[in-house]
Amino acid sequence: MQIAFFINDLEREHAGYTTTVLAHQAAIRGHQVCYVTPSDFALRSDDSLWVHARRMPKRKYKDREDFFETLKSARVKAEPIDMAEIDVLMLRNDPSIDAETPWAMEAGILFGREAVKRGTIVLNDPDSLGRAINKLYFQSFPSEARAETLISKHAADIKAFAKEHRGNIILKPLQGSGGSGVFKLDAKSKDNLNQIIEAIGRDGYIIAQAYVPAAKKGDIRFFLMNGKPLQIGGKYAALRRVASADDIRSNIHAGGKAEAVEIGETELRVAELIRPKLVADGMFLVGIDIVGDKILEVNVFSPGNLGSCSRLAGVDFSEPILDAIERKVTIAEQNPQSFDNRHLAIL
Fold first, then answer.
1. Residues 6+ positions from 297 with CB-CB distance below 8 Å
2. Which residues constitute the domain of residue 95?
3. Are residues 218 and 207 in the same domain?
4. 247 pLDDT higher than 70
5. Which residues pair with 245 in a beta bridge?
6. Are 58 and 153 contained in the same domain?
7. Cis omega before residue 124 (within 30°)?
8. pLDDT reading at 252 higher than 70
9. Is 110 inside any structural domain?
10. Is the pLDDT of residue 324 over 90?
11. Considering its fold, how many domains does the chain have in total?
């Protein structure tokens, strides 16, 4: 199998990132691995789609760090590859990072669609990712599973929402990820509401979300695969992210701390509530953030912390993910043109 990982750029990748974990697991299994960035596609005059990909040497790597160091080294250079030769293209970029270069934000989605036409399995499904490019996609999930939310640019709307919830709300931008631009309004900060609205509103629409008291204990990052909780022998790919004492954001790279967590009936019920939508949209690998019995985020682009989940659980969750990808390739080979990409993505 030849598998390509689409990322924002090599400079911002890390040996511990989920993409590296998955790519390394693919290499361990003897698959041909390559990396692609937004500027690497080429649609040629004969209508063939090519990528200037960084193809990893097929050899045994000492560990993930060795794999990553090789990727970053001068030994791995971009070379043209016909997309028709690539079995799977895994879209693992974060569009919000490329907000200042709009052409790059949707490159994976646009060329992912073209790759599908040429027989490549694209995960997650690019058509559905196109609808999930901002947090408005979150509103398409059942209201029972979501914290009460308002999306507006009008200060009066947000102030009324804050009053309705006695000032206990979270404010964040419609675009963005990783906890960027997130504010919690409470009795201490209510006098700063105008400044907060102005600061977030400069870049677009504002999300106002009812504060869920259970957030004091942090949120739970929970991986779903093919619409179902990712697990090995009853151990779930999940962790609790606890914010630092001086920050409301529990995101790991925003200073949050990862802890082991038990997944119970509440989390499984939330996952089941949103499962039909994820399956219908061909969302193969998803990370959901749960507080209490509500989802606060649904990351369908580049959910992270898989390595930390594996470390805390004592198992390697990249293995069932690669098992599933290999199975999709086999299904596609055994049933040519029988399934569209959206359905194949969750088989």
1. 135, 138, 288, 289
2. 2-123
3. no
4. no
5. none
6. no
7. yes
8. no
9. yes
10. yes
11. 3
